[in-house]
Amino acid sequence: MPTLWFCLVAIMIAVYVLLDGFDLGAGIVHLGGARTDAERRAVLSTIGPVWDANEVWLLASGGVLFFAFPVLYASSFSGFYLPLMMVLWLLILRGIAVEFRSHISGPIWAPFWDVVFCLSSALLAIFYGAALGNIVRGVPLDAQGYFFEPLWTNFKLGQDTGVLDWYTILVGLAAYFALAQHGALWVAHKTEGEVSRRARRIAKIGWWGVASLTAVVTLVTFRVQSQVLANLTGHPWGFIFPALAVAGLVGVIISISGVASRAKEARAFFSSCAYLLGMLTSVVFGLYPYVLPARGDAALSLTIYNAGTTQRGMQIGLMWWIVGIILATGYFIFLYRRFSGKVGVGEGHGS
């Protein structure tokens, strides 16, 4: 049962990254992919009906994490208190920028909200990546399962770690490029004309950053967290996850090369989804059974066994989770079918 809930939490977080990831990516490329006010309104219209719904998966993931692994929830939320507050404010600013741009317009306010939207999206992508880097690298857990990390110390890997060091920044940059590419492919798929062409060019350029950083981060991760390589070599079937990421990455560059078409745009976006899913599942598989590794003494690590709730609680919770996930899945299918199709430049942005 702990393994099942470990997989369910991972699936929910992966769905959040795939869905809200293109929202963040659209924000990252917002200023570069759209030049005029009408074009920027078109970019916002590609995410307007769905961006706040996508963030429901973040809230739901937090709720499930609190239920299934309460010790992990308590430890991580206390140890990462400062960066979590920063992420919360970035989410608030991003939401304000999306909504206020269509309500408070003008020659000064519209560019201001555009910058806020772009900057908050970029910083969120980097912070999410740095958070993942912290989990993979490990944190200085004590015997009670708690820890504290300053925002940074000396940017080196060691016992005195901070939230930001050279490794977590590297993972943050990889997340930035990956989500920028993901968002650019979404914008290319959902828009027409010059905006779509610019978004495809951004995705093409960004692909090289994604490919190179993926290779570097993978090699470095094998040295930073030995559990990842041990799990892969000990269970060779797990190589299906990094293979999925590689296949997705290859699919992206093939689909965005040559003459553009709606089918190729869709294929490129779903290839990006496969890449992100492959990378996330590779991390999950590589860390199992750890949910939060300890830096230094592996015996202090939080695992699915010492961080989880009771067996009875997991069994009861599973019944409610099934009902909730069916309702949520049905709603999202309706939502995306309802707002399918391309957005033309000049169409008003709504949410």
Explain the layout of strands and helices.
Layout: H1 2-28, H2 30-33, H3 37-47, H4 51-54, H5 56-68, H6 70-79, H7 81-100, H8 109-137, H9 166-190, H10 193-224, H11 226-234, H12 240-255, H13 262-287, E1 290-292, E2 302-303, H14 311-338
Antiparallel strand pairs: 1-2
Helix pairs in contact: 1-5, 1-8, 1-9, 1-13, 5-6, 7-8, 8-9, 9-10, 9-13, 10-11, 11-13, 12-13
In short:
By secondary structure, this protein is mainly α. It contains 14 helices and two strands, in the order αααααααααααααββα.
Q: What would you say this structure looks like, in words?
A:
The chain is mainly alpha-helical and 351 residues long. The protein contains 14 helices and 2 strands; from the N terminus they run αααααααααααααββα. It has a two-stranded antiparallel sheet. It starts with a helix and ends in a 13-residue tail after the last helix.
Task: Give the fraction of residues assigned to helices.
Answer: over 70%
End-to-end Cα distance: 39 Å
Shape: globular
Share in β-strands: under 5%
Q: Largest sheet at a glance?
A: 2 strands, antiparallel
**How many helices?**
14
Strand elements, count:
2
Which regions have little confidence, pLDDT < 50, spanning 5+ residues? none
Radius of gyration over C-alpha positions, nearest whole angstrom: 20 Å
What class do helices, strands and sheet pairing give?
Answer: mainly alpha
**Residue-averaged pLDDT, rounded?**
91
Question: Which strand order spans the largest sheet, edge to edge or round the barrel?
Answer: 1-2
| Helix-strand string | HHHHHHHHHHHHHEEH
